[in-house]
Amino acid sequence: MLHSEQGDAHISPSGQVPIFLIGMMGAGKTTIGRGLARSLGREFLDLDHEIEARCGVSIPTIFDIEGEAGFRRRETQVLEEVTLRRAVVLATGGGAVVAPENQALLRARGIVLYLKAGSDELFRRVAKDKNRPMLLTANPKARIVELLRQREPIYEQLADYTVETGHGSIHTVLDAVARLLKEHAQRGENI
Ligand SMILES: Nc1ncnc2c1ncn2[C@@H]1O[C@H](COP(=O)(O)OP(=O)(O)O)[C@@H](O)[C@H]1O
Ligand SMILES: O=C(O)C1=C[C@@H](OP(=O)(O)O)[C@@H](O)[C@H](O)C1
Ligand SMILES: [Mg+2]
After folding, report:
1. What's the 25 CA to ligand 2 centre distance in angstroms?
2. Where in the sequence is the domain holding 149, given as residue range(s)?
3. The ligand 1 atom nearest the CA atom of 24
4. Tell me: the pLDDT tens digits for 116-130?
5. Residue 85 belongs to a domain
6. Which residues hold Mg(2+) (predicted)?
7. pTM: predicted TM-score of the whole model, two decimal places
């Protein structure tokens, strides 16, 4: 259900509301978000890319210079801005749901899709990726397990819909998301 924060302030005249993808690193938010936007004919934004564009440096560089706390401040600022865009599909970063103010923005401003996968598959997908500074630890698999344990209740609680992405192909996941959104629209809800 869409919870409006100022009446229907974030619903455009054509009834479109933003679609937000949440979930762990490697769940497929960026990949599925891009495909979903293409199939809906919508603008695609990736929160990490938007942060990088505004800062002029990469996410790992932001972590190097400002630490996670600095990155999270920037993440909230950019989230506040981009969630106001109406006809957008927004892939968030895995940790964007942790700050309570971010949770409020996502809940109030759009449809939240949780892309869900287990820790083994998440690890397989991101193990060789050097662009995820949260995993620069001695035991990245244990880090994923711990982050998933902390974040799963938040993902579950924020989600309007949950889609399993750990088993099927990208195509299968896109089909499942399209079906959910079609059913959502058939119930008379804005998408
Ligand atoms: N079923 C699937 N759904 C989404 N991504 C998948 C799937 N299978 C494999 N992948 C791969 O997982 C990797 C991580 O995806 P990415 O979109 O970067 O995730 P996130 O943005 O959630 O961290 C990509 O290389 C993507 O191709
Ligand atoms: O889980 C996290 O805390 C993070 C996930 C990343 O995004 P993806 O989930 O797209 O990898 C990125 O925002 C940053 O490295 C922190
Ligand atoms: Mg991503």
Report:
1. 5
2. 19-185
3. 22
4. 999 999 999 999 898
5. yes
6. 30
7. 0.94
